[in-house]
Amino acid sequence: MSWTSKHLKWLCDTGKRLRTPDGKDVEIWEFKHNNDDAVFSAWAKHFRNHYCFDTEIDILRCGTGYSRSEYLTNIKLPDSSVAPGPSIRAGDFGEILVADYLQYILGYSVPRRRYAEKSVRNESTKGCDIIGFKYFHNGMDEKDDVLAIFEAKTQFSGTIANPRLQDAVNDSTKDQIRKAESLNAIKQHYVKQNLIDDVEKIARFQNLEDRPYREIYGAVALFSTQVLNETKIAETKTKHHPHAKELVLLVFHGNDMMTLVHELYRRVADEA
What we know:
Mean pLDDT: 94
Structural class: alpha/beta
Strand content: 15-25%
Order of helices and strands: EEHHHHEEHHHEHEH
Radius of gyration: 19 Å
Distance between the termini: 11 Å
Strand order of the largest sheet: 1-2-6-5-4-3
Low-confidence stretches: none
Shape: globular
Largest sheet: 6 strands, mixed
């Protein structure tokens, strides 16, 4: 496998901040993508490995009669045209981009096998969208350790903006309940892979009362610039969130994002 952060040079903090009715700031970031072929190819490989490690493709496609590209297109990746495939593509893309932001810009450790373990390609995964970890002083029993849980919602099509940041905030209110199940799912994956060090790192965050750590929650809305509506974003309410003080609000937007999503998925399959 090969992870990369080269595409994040396109993600730029505009410096603009919107203020919500509850006094929260919303950071506005722009994804200024271009046609840099080398960056696209590296990004496609990075993206593909979320669904299927490159080292696994040949053994997984064995018996199907499919080429690598056909296996990914027909078995692993959300459909490009049959509903709800395109919306699942947009949602997965948004979650992975936020995971990249959390890892490569904010410095968290982010598990990456959420999409590979889907049993149905045209369904979204369950549980918390993105979980990240920060460890201090080697991570064990340190109150400064941080668990970050982010929710991401996308709108890459249409002509009228939907309240996607509010949707992300509303979904984030459920993360306190989903946290235990999501951590257990990550831990189970590491147990299956015999990654004992990683198992212990997850265990460190499974009992907040006995082993305190900090929690940070995030709500992220991703838009095509064509449907970005800052007035609607600024109407987002957070006062009913159980961790409103620790809640981070972000908006990512970029030009014609659904076209970008489809091009990335095409490269994911064709360049395998």
